[in-house]
């Protein structure tokens, strides 16, 4: 395995000199299996700068057949990838899971441009991503030794990609509840802009979906973070929820959207903010 890893790294470094654009597309198919072997490698340069960057370019350049991408999408939602060692305290586990989710975001984005997945596959991916997001307990953002883990941000990216795949209003509501629960769990303060990445999904919902009554109640429910009994869980949840609510407020203020939601966001933020007099 070490020889394969060293050989893969050397090959990808050479390809990076041309920004991973290939002269022969079949090279991508040959490299894919080895890239998947090291998708969650502890070396952040190999995992992130080389494997993930190469994969994004290969997908964007149309180097993979629809059959390959379809099979890969099915593979990534299995126990060996986004659920790898999900119940274990294992740094290699979170790296493999989180970067498998990033690969999924790319395959879904490709489908949004040129559909190749069945409706059943899209449903399976949606269910798996929600299950993964709820189950993931390793919430670190950037690790000084291993680089980016960033599970919350990566899953938010995949959720955004799902929006381009024709998921239903009910599917969107399921995802919104999963995001809300993760931000209210109070386990860790998100410190690597996870809130912004989650806000990107919510903002797209605000722009494109019509069930305003649901959105208003969903936004108001974030105020319940201030009612959590345990002090530090409450503190962490309030910070995370305040940040997400503020993100959404300024997304609408800066980029447009349903301005009727702004008073709801202000009211919810005030209930979460113990420094605001009410």
Structure overview:
With 278 residues, the chain is an all-alpha fold. It contains twelve helices and two strands. It has a two-stranded antiparallel sheet with strand order 1-2. α7 (151-163) runs antiparallel to α8. It is globular. 38% of the residues are buried. The mean pLDDT is 96.
Give a brief rundown of this model.
The chain has a domain at 183-278.
Key phrases:
single chain, 278 residues, mainly alpha, two-stranded antiparallel sheet, 1% strand
Number of helices: 12
* Low-pLDDT segments: none
Largest sheet: 2 strands, antiparallel
The dominant shape is globular
Q: Could you give the order of strands across the largest sheet?
A: 1-2
Helicity level, as a percent range? 55-70%
What is the alpha-carbon Rg in Å? 20 Å
Helix-strand pattern, N to C? Answer: HHHHHHEEHHHHHH
Element layout with pairings:
Layout: H1 2-16, H2 26-37, H3 44-60, H4 66-76, H5 91-113, H6 119-135, E1 142-143, E2 147-148, H7 151-163, H8 169-184, H9 194-208, H10 212-220, H11 231-255, H12 262-272
Antiparallel strand pairs: 1-2
Helix pairs in contact: 1-3, 3-5, 4-5, 5-7, 6-7, 6-8, 7-8, 7-9, 8-9, 9-11, 11-12
């Amino acid at each position: 395995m070490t020889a394969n890893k060293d050989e893969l790294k050397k090959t990808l470094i050479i390809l990076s000199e041309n920004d991973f654009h290939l002269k022969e597309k079949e090279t991508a198919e040959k490299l894919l299996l080895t890239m998947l072997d090291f998708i969650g490698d502890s070396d952040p340069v190999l995992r992130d700068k080389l494997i993930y960057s190469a994969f994004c370019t290969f997908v964007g350049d149309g180097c993979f057949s629809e059959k390959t991408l379809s099979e890969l999408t099915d593979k990534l939602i299995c126990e060996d990838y986004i659920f790898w060692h999900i119940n274990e305290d294992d740094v290699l586990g979170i790296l493999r899971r989180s970067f498998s989710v990033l690969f999924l975001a790319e395959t879904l984005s490709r489908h949004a441009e040129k559909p190749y997945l069945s409706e059943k596959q899209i449903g399976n991916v949606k269910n798996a991503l929600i299950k993964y997001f709820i189950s993931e307990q390793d919430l670190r953002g950037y690790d000084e030794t291993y680089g980016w883990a960033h599970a919350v941000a990566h899953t938010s990216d995949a959720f955004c990609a799902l929006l381009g795949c024709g998921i239903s209003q009910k599917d969107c509501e399921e995802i919104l509840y999963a995001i809300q629960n993760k931000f209210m769990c109070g386990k860790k303060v998100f410190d690597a802009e996870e809130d912004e990445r989650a806000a990107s999904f919510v903002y797209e919902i605000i722009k494109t979906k019509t069930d305003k009554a649901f959105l208003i109640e969903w936004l108001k429910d974030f105020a319940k973070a201030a009612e959590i009994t345990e002090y530090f869980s409450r503190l962490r949840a309030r910070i995370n929820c305040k940040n997400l609510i503020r993100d959404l407020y300024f997304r609408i203020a800066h980029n447009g959207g349903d301005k009727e939601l702004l008073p709801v966001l202000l009211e919810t933020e005030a209930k979460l903010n113990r420094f605001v007099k009410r």
